[in-house]
Design a protein that fits this description.
Elements lengths: L2 H21 L23 H5 L1 E2 L2 H18 L14 E8 L2 E9 L6 E9 L13 E10 L3 E2 L3 H8 L4 E3 L5 E3 L12 E7 L10 E8 L11 E9 L6 H16 L1
Parallel strand pairs: 1-6
Antiparallel strand pairs: 2-3, 3-4, 4-5, 5-11, 7-8, 9-10, 10-11
């Protein structure tokens, strides 16, 4: 197997260790942690072609249309349909045993190397005790590339998604800058965290995470490679006990 393919496969396995370490840093909405240990190579294509492709103009157009739709849903509260065409074709849907939300997995014909996930949950701002009867709302979106795709620039993504030069933790504390520390053994996996800008029509705060593979000294291509984008709508964290207290407070206000 090509040494670069083997190296990147190990990097993806180690990536989960980095996300777990980063997860110890509080954020308003936890970024989901996923491991993608395998990287299937399409039949009839060489590993080098499959692993070292540059995004085409058509793929770029599809990719940005998808991200535009995501931000409209998460930030501007545009309604979400499970058959959202901008995400591709729904390949799988899974339910939660303790929540009315769903996990949707999509396949995009224009970007076959992309794993696309959209997750909904029962509305955290609804304090009802029976979560199965609570309307669902978007929680997170994630697109991850199974093969290396060059040509997606971080600065361009920051402009397109209208991202701030800081991120916010779960205590509401703003942290200047976006670059997070890398941890062994995944020193080439570089994570950037952001709060999305509040625009005209914005309804919810949104957190965004970009992860790139930085080039190694021996790599011919010195361009960072986009690994994944995660978008999360920031809701206040409420335990069942906290929801109960909120319900009681609302009931008391109604009686008063």
């Amino acid at each position: 197997m090509d040494t670069k393919v083997s190296y990147m496969r190990k990097m993806r396995i180690h990536a989960v260790m980095l996300w777990i370490a980063i997860g110890t840093m509080k954020t308003i909405s936890p970024i989901p942690v996923h491991a993608e240990p395998s990287m299937a190579i399409p039949s009839g294509r060489s590993e080098k072609v499959a692993m070292d492709s540059h995004i085409s103009n058509e793929q770029r157009k599809t990719f940005y249309a998808m991200l535009d739709q995501v931000m409209e849903i998460f930030r501007d509260n545009k309604s979400f349909s499970k058959n959202e065409s901008a995400f591709g074709v729904m390949a799988k849907m899974e339910s939660s045993f303790d929540d009315s939300g769903r996990q949707y997995l999509y396949k995009c014909e224009s970007i076959p190397s992309a794993s696309i996930e959209f997750i909904t949950v029962s509305d955290p701002l609804n304090f009802s005790d029976d979560r199965s009867q609570v309307p669902v709302v978007p929680q997170s979106f994630r697109i991850m590339f199974r093969h290396l795709v060059y040509g997606l620039d971080r600065a361009e993504l920051e402009r397109r998604l209208s991202l701030e030069s800081y991120w916010v933790d779960s205590n509401g504390v703003k942290h200047d800058g976006n670059s997070l520390q890398s941890f062994p053994p995944s020193l080439q996996l570089h994570v950037y965290r952001y709060r999305a800008k509040q625009l005209v029509g914005s309804r919810f705060p949104v957190d965004v995470e970009l992860s790139f593979f930085d080039p190694r000294s021996e790599d011919i291509n010195k361009e960072p490679i986009l690994n994944a984008i995660t978008v999360v709508r920031s809701y206040p964290y409420l335990t069942p006990e906290m929801r109960k207290k909120k319900r009681e407070e609302e009931q008391q206000k109604m009686r008063d």
